[in-house]
Amino acid sequence: MTRQIKLGLSMRYLGYHAGAWRHPEVDPEGASKLSHFVRIARTAEAAKLDMVFLADGIGIRTKDEPPGALCRSAQTAEMEPLTLLSALSAVTSHIGLVATASTTYNEPFHIARKWASLDHLSGGRAGWNIVTSWSDAEARNFNRDEHLDYATRYERAAEFVEVVKGLWDSWDEDALVNDKQTGIFFDPAKLHALNHVGKHFKVKGPLSVKRTPQGRPILVQAGASDQGIDIAAESADVVYSVSQDMEQGRAYYAKLKGRLARHGRSPDELLIMPGITHFIGATRQEAQDKYEKLNALVDPILGLSYLYGQMGDLSGYDVDGPVPEPNNPQVRSIAKGLLELAHRENLTIRQLYTTIAAGFGTRLVIGTPQDVVDDMEAWVEAGAADGFNLCPPYLPGGMDDFIQLALPELRRRGMFRTEYEGKTLRESLGLRKPRSRYEGKNSGAIK
Amino acid sequence: MTRQIKLGLSMRYLGYHAGAWRHPEVDPEGASKLSHFVRIARTAEAAKLDMVFLADGIGIRTKDEPPGALCRSAQTAEMEPLTLLSALSAVTSHIGLVATASTTYNEPFHIARKWASLDHLSGGRAGWNIVTSWSDAEARNFNRDEHLDYATRYERAAEFVEVVKGLWDSWDEDALVNDKQTGIFFDPAKLHALNHVGKHFKVKGPLSVKRTPQGRPILVQAGASDQGIDIAAESADVVYSVSQDMEQGRAYYAKLKGRLARHGRSPDELLIMPGITHFIGATRQEAQDKYEKLNALVDPILGLSYLYGQMGDLSGYDVDGPVPEPNNPQVRSIAKGLLELAHRENLTIRQLYTTIAAGFGTRLVIGTPQDVVDDMEAWVEAGAADGFNLCPPYLPGGMDDFIQLALPELRRRGMFRTEYEGKTLRESLGLRKPRSRYEGKNSGAIK
């Protein structure tokens, strides 16, 4: 029997397909409504999923959009992840709440404090997805003209995470004694100032939030680059990966799990959860029809915008004709991956942009419940996944399809829980509570 | 008949009295529990109060604390205001949610985005209390050794508020057309980039959150200095003032209301709500007993710490003896206000620190429901207040006393609502929705 898997649900915007907002069942303003997300989170919790997740960018990424494309995209107006997940903490009881925050345009004290607070509010269900910001559109909202170079971003990110983890250790678990008789509120030997002085940050501490129910929130990462993998191997509890095929997934899994020992960690201390966008039907034809129906809702002006950054303006060509060979050698070089894909699979322009518009980089799986669960089981058996980050094409319908059609089959094979194992996200994921850096030491206490 | 007043409830920590956490009815860990704040917010909402409020500092203010004092203070471990109020937005329906955020150690894009999000989550009940950060303890959590000088802080604050207001105008109210037939999600003529370039900030925009139910969140300020009053007169909807007596309150009220015309605003566009800490009993003796009972719960080590910054270490003196005259002329100068108070009212050391420990600068009112409402009515009649920011000595008990004992008397005099006037905080406060800076203009639209 295949071992149990973990399942997250990504719920940004109205789903991962660019046509989602035009789907007849989708509320196009859902991304600005609490009720939309309450419906999703409660359904996911009733299905015993491990966590809901919100990806994020700090601004509208207008770069490379040709005129007329941006106004056809629903990926423009939304709520902010931390406030939204905090609201959901009050109306859910078991499901994990993972929000993204950038290390590029934030300060570690704010992030440590806000996520510690979310961990208290939720009774131990907070997670932080650690990212760096790579777009000029974001840089321009934060006093810069261009985004930071790659090396600086990752160096800053690594130090940022160290500071945040340090601040989360400020209070020992038993620091608050609350002795009304003696008037002692906390034991001063159990409160610690971090006194961090580094290249990017100088942070004294201590944090003004007591130690959280999970010891510290779950750390999530999506590190695909070498520096990203290093941050993940050192600190992450969960990695959302983006492998496109099983062999690539297996190689990534082996590489990242192998890197853990360098940081004194064992392979089971980090869970790898590739993203998948599912189209599920009672028959393969029904699944394919669901897929095609959403594809037809992507206006070619919007669709061409996904090729614009690499291939330039293709609006003069027939979208149902072949992908043109660029004359400009520089464009040929930038668009190499897309051109190879188009040639290999003999795609039209419309089919080419659909490969992006249908999931924005997540792997697509189209089929019956049996097909979908076979695929998941194969990845787990091959050593390519500990679970999956579900990225439904539209919400809530795409999630409902998975829960109603695929989840019973996963359970029938003994691959997914029927009850939560505990109360915290850490307990659901089967991860140990971290030790404080001050455990067994007297150093650093507040005098 | 006195006109209707507005009422806010300040709910930081466990109340405004330093002895609150030792009160027999108080849960000393309440400040880290969602259930504690849900109880308070729902009770305040059932009583039709305008809003709940959280003051804030970004770190533990250890400065000037002598050894042994900090560990006797509950003002050390708490949750972060924005996450906490976001959680409360999901379990309340009418009460306003006002959270503090510093302009000194934040970026305007984050603040604009998060508060716009809270306004959507709550259906139009968000407020931002605008502050600057003045303590070295906070500076040291944000890469600095000392806090910014006063002038820089206020200059930055004024520009910060302008940027935030500008970002909140990014989307016209009717920008989202959501036309599933044509595929147009928003009207690009109704989305505006701010393109702000100033001394402290460069922010392009637009904001990635659509225009909020209140047009923009309510802006709150506590400006007592001249620069503070200017920011308030230009932008604030509500001011929390700290006047200690009615004459001072009347003068402040007249000065601030008089300043509004400079910014093209009328006096009724800004509400002034002085803070009060009430001790209420069926008789005056009962009220006084409640006050004394809490005072007795302030350990002298903690009490002396409130004098430490101005008067130095007084631990060698009898706390129930007279306040000693400092030999050092510099100390005499710094402690001038406290020394005058001690002489005028013939206070012991214990009585002197109690004036601080009992409300941290808010005005104390001790008496029967009749006394308390007489006092409020007198302030309103005198032109010193449009309402009050209630700062209960301990929570939830101090709030319950006000609601059960004083509120019926306020209502009997026709001074407070029996039902909410609408759904948003702006409607409760009787304030108009702001116009967008782009109304009637075509400039600034995204192409």
Automatic annotation (TrEMBL), chains A, B:
<dbReference type="InterPro" id="IPR036661">
    <property type="entry name" value="Luciferase-like_sf"/>
</dbReference>
<dbReference type="GO" id="GO:0016491">
    <property type="term" value="F:oxidoreductase activity"/>
</dbReference>
<keyword id="KW-0285">Flavoprotein</keyword>
<keyword id="KW-0560">Oxidoreductase</keyword>
<dbReference type="InterPro" id="IPR011251">
    <property type="entry name" value="Luciferase-like_dom"/>
</dbReference>
<protein>
    <submittedName>
        <fullName>LLM class flavin-dependent oxidoreductase</fullName>
        <ecNumber>1.-.-.-</ecNumber>
    </submittedName>
</protein>
<keyword id="KW-0288">FMN</keyword>
<dbReference type="InterPro" id="IPR051260">
    <property type="entry name" value="Diverse_substr_monoxygenases"/>
</dbReference>
<keyword id="KW-0503">Monooxygenase</keyword>
<dbReference type="Pfam" id="PF00296">
    <property type="entry name" value="Bac_luciferase"/>
</dbReference>
<feature type="domain" description="Luciferase-like">
    <location>
        <begin position="26"/>
        <end position="384"/>
    </location>
</feature>
<comment type="similarity">
    <text>Belongs to the NtaA/SnaA/DszA monooxygenase family.</text>
</comment>
<dbReference type="InterPro" id="IPR016215">
    <property type="entry name" value="NTA_MOA"/>
</dbReference>
